[in-house]
Amino acid sequence: MAFKIYTKTGDKGETSLFGGKRLPKNHIRIEAYGTIDELNAYIGLVRDAIEDEASRSILKQAQDRLFTIGALLATDPDKPMPLPDIKEIDLELLENEMDRIEEVLEPLKNFILPGGHIIVSYCHVARCVCRRAERNVVALKQESPVADIIPQYINRLSDYLFMLARYQSKLLKVEEVIWLPRK
Questions:
Q1: Most buried by CB count within 10 Å: which residue of 54, 62, 85, 149?
Q2: How far are the Cα atoms of 80, 97, 138, 164 from residue 89, in angstroms, in the given order?
Q3: pTM score, two decimals?
């Protein structure tokens, strides 16, 4: 018998966590892991758009970690299950990559606006979705246990996506779009 993608169990506005617990689809837990899924899709878009193999590799690893985070958030906290986890080394990977990128960039002297090239804009869209994911995870953490490393990883990832946007501007030889406030 073939596996069917549709189950009809969510037709009344609820969904199941791993472990069986049902929640309304607008619950903060569902919003949190749904935004992680959205972020993963945008990072896939960025990864497909850029040609820099080192950055593509980092983004693939980020996608793997985000899938893990999604699984952790989609698990009933009252019925923990054996799942992969996020580790300090995952934070260090992003930090080390940002340090590597920073060495080749001009120091940041202005606020940067999204734009200049479609790839740079994709990076900024992913960064914004990452920030929303972070806000949702923090909101969930206020009402339910969430490992500290999860919001830390998402925070670091948003910083990395900002640095990646700047780095892609450099690689693509396009000027960064600087914010010019009205005087």
A1: 62
A2: 23, 12, 21, 19
A3: 0.92
